[in-house]
Design brief:
This protein is α+β, with helices and mostly antiparallel strands and 471 residues long. The protein is 67% helix and 10% strand. The chain starts with a helix and ends with a strand. Pfam families: HATPase_c.
């Protein structure tokens, strides 16, 4: 039997799947099923009116049986399903709910006159109710059919018919009703099993896809972090190169200091110090002090600006800041790298533009745009011009326009320019995440929008509109 049910698609080979399906099938939309059971009890009792029409003298016992079945079996079975510990036995409860009134209906017909002449109609109503409104599987419905049909046939032998062929007609009608209902129950269960299997497979694929997506996002996060660190590394290299000059000059001047001080010490020790020699030494020391101070101040400013930019990008804190001062600090760290490659940087920003935003994210945006331009806009190594214009659109928005006079972007690449991992310079180590990071930071963190215009040999213009105060 188990093998046959497997072939018919009415059973799962895995017992765990079978158990989960049975629980879902029998308890799905339980409130609707309970409402149907209450309706069934009401209809079962309401047919006592038909009993009165058929046989008024037997109406009392028939009605008593109907009420007893409803009060003792149908309504308690309905209420029992509201108790969670009883729900694992839901199918058995349904079976009792169906079998008892189906069998007792044959007992009622024993009291009625003309007895079983109308028995087939009553049984077909019960069969129709069971097959359409209760979630019985094929085995349970088969048990219901065997028990109720046997009871009907048994009690019908106690009755007499004016037409002897009526017994055959009744059983033929009931048998046809059972057969059709069995097919309907089987088809419903088959569809439910197929849907259950499809849902399970979709859930497995969904879990697998979510796991793959989580892994992809983690990988992307690592790559983005690596890209940010790489950009910061280039800033470090540029700043370090720029600091070498003032530090070197200060070191050379201090060495000269040591030489002049040594000469002065020897002259004082010999007692042959002339006024002109002392004056010249003081002037040299004074000039050296000025050179050391100016160069160390320049180095300190570079370090301080770089420190602020690095802290902003690392901490990602929100604060209010003056855009002009912030931009000067940022370009003091980017400037060495750009000037080393021969590029000219032009800034245009009105004074007094104050925004409440994330300076680290904005610094990352400008840095990535500048570095991306150096790599892609001037691939042949020629020098170019980068321009950054900042203006107020209105009281609530600012606009940052970044332009270069490089080779531009081919038309076919424009739709993909902000896609992750899209790059035309992978052979030079590019990851394709620079502009993707820019897009995400502008649209998500900074709550703005970004537009790009470019053409071959006409350069690139990137316009960023940002709220002056984040929501």
């Amino acid at each position: 039997m188990r093998t046959l049910m497997l072939k018919l698609g009415l059973r799962f080979d895995d017992p765990h799947d079978e158990k989960r399906f049975v629980r879902q099938f029998t308890l799905d939309d339980l409130s609707r099923t309970q409402a149907a059971m209450v309706l069934g009890a009401v209809v079962y009792c309401s047919f006592s009116a038909m009993d009165w029409i058929l046989s008024p003298e037997a109406w009392g016992p028939a009605t008593a049986i109907r009420l007893a079945v409803a009060v003792l079996v149908l309504l308690p079975a309905t209420g029992l399903l509201a108790w969670p510990p009883a729900r694992p036995f839901a199918e058995r409860i349904y079976l009792v709910y169906c079998v008892v009134p189906g069998c007792m209906l044959s007992v009622i017909y024993v009291f009625l006159r003309p007895s079983f002449d109308h028995g087939a109609a009553g049984m077909i109503v019960v069969i129709l109710f069971v097959s359409t409104l209760l979630p019985l599987r094929v085995p349970s419905f088969a048990v219901f059919a065997v028990l109720t049909w046997t009871c009907f046939a048994l009690f019908e032998t106690m009755a007499s018919h004016d037409n002897p062929g009526l017994t055959l007609v009744n059983n033929a009608e009931i048998g046809a009703a059972y057969a059709l209902s069995l097919y309907g129950v089987g088809a419903r269960e088959f569809r439910a099993r197929r849907q259950f299997r499809t849902t399970e497979e979709l859930q497995v694929e969904k879990d697998r896809s979510e796991a793959a997506l989580a892994e992809l996002r983690a990988t992307q996060a690592h790559l983005i972090q690596a890209e940010k660190l790489a950009a910061l590394g280039q800033l470090v290299a540029g700043v370090a190169h720029e600091i070498n000059t003032p530090i070197g000059l200060a070191l050379t001047t201090s060495t000269a200091f040591d030489h002049h001080v040594g000469q002065l010490r020897r002259s004082i020790a010999s007692g042959q110090v002339s006024r002109s020699q002392l004056t010249q030494c003081v002037e040299q020391l004074s000039e050296g002090t000025r050179l050391i101070f100016s160069n160390l101040t320049r180095a300190a400013d570079l370090v301080q600006n770089f420190k602020q930019v690095a802290v902003d990008q690392a901490m990602e804190d929100r604060r209010s800041f003056d855009v002009r001062d912030w931009l000067v600090e940022l370009m003091s760290t980017l400037g060495p790298l750009l000037r080393r490659k021969g590029h000219e940087v032009r800034l245009a920003c009105a004074e007094g533009i104050v925004v409440d935003s994330y300076p680290g994210a904005l610094a990352q945006v400008v840095s990535n745009l500048a570095l991306n331009a150096v790599i892609h806009a001037f691939p042949d190594g020629r020098a170019g011009t980068l321009a950054i214009d900042v203006s107020l659109v209105d009281d609530a928005r600012i606009r940052i326009v970044f332009r270069d006079d490089g080779q531009g972007i081919p038309k076919e690449n424009l739709p993909r320019i902000f896609d992750p991992f899209f790059t035309t310079r992978r052979d030079r180590g590019s990851t394709g995440l620079g502009l993707h990071i820019v897009y995400n930071l502008v649209t998500s963190t900074l709550q703005g929008r970004i537009d790009l215009e470019s053409g071959e040999a006409t350069g690139t213009r990137i316009t960023i509109d940002l709220p002056a105060t984040l929501a």
